[in-house]
């Protein structure tokens, strides 16, 4: 029996990973989070981490926060505990474009990748595009006003979170692969198209006006920094997702 630990086990991605691991059978799956009943851990301080990692062979690291530098601190604690416990495989979920898009959160994610690469542990890093849930958050935010002002030229490639979970589980049950092939959603959508899809789904009418925004960030986004069209292997579309989400 393989013992697999999942950080961020109650999060958007982590809960799907845990469901799939448990459904696959033959594994002890440990859900690690600050709210976990069995393995309560604070990755930012390391409290509870040694006990949670003891005996684990594989760690799937899904926990994340946009707080400046926090992911790096958490990764250092996790790597130290994994080395001490003799973990053979650390699997990390990252984001497509973190080396192209100048965001502080992305710079931190890139540094976490480097920490894992230099850790001496067997590792697999999977970069995925934005989840449908995040794309929906963008759409809602952009349509709160009577007129939707949308940055022009910005494109996303949203992917279903359960499809990312399925890939992570397959990678976790295999051997360390270094940098795995990226995972992108099935379609590239402009923000304008994404907003219009959302408006149709919720039955709202809003004028949608494009606005060209300056700066390095939006230049990188217009250049396709968040995209991986050569790895458009996801199946669930944003339209299908948002149709189901607004009906709940």
TrEMBL record:
Domain of life, source organism: Bacteria
Domain NAD(P)-binding span(s) in chain numbering: 8-133
SUPFAM superfamilies (alphabetical): NAD(P)-binding Rossmann-fold domains (SSF51735)
Coiled coil: none
InterPro entries per UniProt: ComplexI_NDUFA9_subunit, NAD(P)-bd_dom, NAD(P)-bd_dom_sf
Pfam families: NAD_binding_10
Protein name: NAD(P)H-binding protein
Organism annotation: Streptomyces cavernicola
């Amino acid at each position: 029996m393989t013992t697999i630990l999942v950080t961020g086990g109650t999060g958007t991605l982590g809960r799907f990973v845990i469901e799939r691991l448990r459904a696959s059978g033959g594994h002890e799956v440990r859900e690690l989070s600050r709210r976990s009943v069995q393995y309560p851990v604070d990755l930012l301080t390391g409290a509870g981490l040694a006990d949670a990692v003891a005996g684990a062979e594989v760690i799937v690291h899904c926990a994340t926060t946009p707080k400046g530098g926090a992911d790096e601190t958490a990764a250092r604690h996790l790597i130290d505990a994994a080395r001490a416990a003799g973990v053979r495989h650390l699997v990390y979920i990252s984001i497509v474009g973190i080396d192209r898009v100048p965001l502080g959160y992305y710079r931190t994610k890139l540094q976490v990748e480097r920490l894992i690469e230099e850790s001496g542990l067997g590792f697999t890093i999977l970069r995925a595009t934005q989840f449908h849930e995040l794309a929906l958050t963008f759409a809602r935010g952009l349509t709160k006003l009577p007129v939707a002002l949308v940055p022009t030229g910005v494109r996303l490639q949203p992917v279903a979170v359960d499809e990312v979970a399925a890939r992570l589980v397959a990678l976790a049950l295999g051997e360390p692969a270094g940098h795995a092939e990226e995972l992108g959603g099935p379609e590239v959508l402009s923000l304008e198209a994404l907003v219009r899809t959302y408006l149709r789904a919720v039955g709202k009418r809003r004028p949608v006006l494009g606005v060209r925004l300056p700066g390095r960030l939006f230049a990188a986004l217009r250049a396709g920094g968040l995209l991986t069209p050569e790895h458009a292997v996801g199946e669930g579309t944003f339209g299908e997702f948002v149709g189901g989400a607004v009906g709940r």
